[in-house]
Fold this protein.
Amino acid sequence: MSIGMKLFRVIKSGFFTTVQDMGRHGFLKYGVPISGAMDDFSLQLSNMLVGNNLGDACLELTMLGPELEALHDAQIAVAGGDISVQINEQDAQMWQTLRVKTGDVVSLGKIQAGCRSYLSVRGGVNVPIVLGSRSTYVRCEIGGIQGRQLKAGDDIEGFDVLQPLGFRLSVPRDFVPDFGAEANVRVVLGPQSKSFTEKGIETFLSNPYMVTIEADRMGYRLEGPAIERGELVDTISDAILPGAVQVPASGKPIITMCDAQTTGGYPKIAAVLSSDMHTLGQAKPNNWVRFQRTTLSEAHRELVEYHDKIRIIESKLLQQRISF
Amino acid sequence: MYPAVRYVSFGDHALTVEFGNSISPEVNRKVQAFHDVISNAKLSGVCECVPTYRSLLIMYDPTKISYEKLVSEVKSLEKMSKAGISERKARKAVVPVVYGGDFGPDITRVAQCHNLKESDVIRIHSGREYLVYMIGFIAGFPYLGELADEIATPRLESPRVRVPEGSVGIAERQTGIYPREAPGGWHIIGRTPLKLFDPSWQPPALFQSGDTVRFRPVSIDEFWRIHAAASRGSYDPFIQE
């Protein structure tokens, strides 16, 4: 085996399948967004299931999964939004290590609950590192496979894996997230909450907002009661980060996601907690989002807990060692 | 310019330091100088900074440094540097542009809008030095100012679906350059053959905030000569001093 060996040929691309890892950091000042997995929790669990580093590159599947032909024996896992997995037309399970053999056909269906699933391969997906990451950023055609979504005929490469896992791992049921039609996310107010009236902030926090059809890796436009802005609205463009809730003059919020542009001039009423971004990353059109206010210190405690939770799952997984 | 710098928390892992509430070279130079101070200080727990018109975004890792500690460290750096914020020696670039025609379809409208001739628009646009306030919108896009009032023009009523790579546009009192084809609402008055973004470069963008830029009118022949040189990587728009 050599480095850069071919693992899969894409038979059907799925709706929007890209290579993603934990994102491209350090280039915001050059206008390069962070990108990376919309649901970093599921990406990390998917990697865990094949014994990878938690931030290795996976395939991010959106709404409808791809069909892949194995060009080599491999170990894979699928985690994230509920999706049917078949190997040679035989049902296989999500949230556990799966083995495929050369010539096998892996078919992924339509995502039922949630919006995105992550297919990991033992050793990680091998595409060139661009600016420190393998994540695909379609708008500027960087990262992933030629900077674009997968298409039929593409070959997906992996790495020379010295040792396949000798056992099967599976995520305990208690840790498998539920992807409902309503995402409850916590926010901290600011940085421009002063651009809004008290009534506007109250409207934002007390009503559910619906994800419209204009929702992708760049951001989600939401529909719901208009958020009242104050008389002095700050509109000088400054930096925006994933999770920022921007409110244009229409009063209908836009949540910035992973591939969003790095600067913008709409005032930001609040930002979603880092530890809740993965929940938001699973929201799809017609789902509802509810915002719950929290404090900065609470947000920081939640972030520590989120990291702990991932470590706990990892240690539980490693205790299993179920043989194939 | 604010009498005192404002510290505003952004989400759970960023701090915005605001120097004023206007778009002006004076405020932006403060941002640039403070960006240098923060970058040189290499504070532990600080991940990256994003300078914009009137503020500096500082991203931090809350598991490594608390917000309170970050603010106090940044404030003390601000106090220390306040007296002697020295302006960074700006890099100066000259950007060749073909004005008007197919490359600058909106120059006629801009001229009409201000009762000017196209040649006046060219003279005014290329007649001053601009500051790169920030990079944003799309990777490598420089926001440049200030544009002369005489040619300041609002955005198009409905944005174009496709603005070609290299297009030079104006919007209000700003001018900018599209590093790649993108949708856009700025009035397009010309096009440069320079390449503005390449992920294989270090850093990946030709310009960074704080640089200064002048535009130089060129002929179509010269455009293509420079285009060829720029594609080979053998055209340097920066003035060596």
Notes: Residues 25-41 of chain B form the longest helix (17 residues). Chain B touches chain A at residues 8-14, 16, 21-23, 47-55, 57, 59, 62-63, 66-67, 134-141, 143, 180, 182, 197, 199, 203-205, 208-209 (CB under 8 Å). Chain B has two domains: 6-82, 92-232.
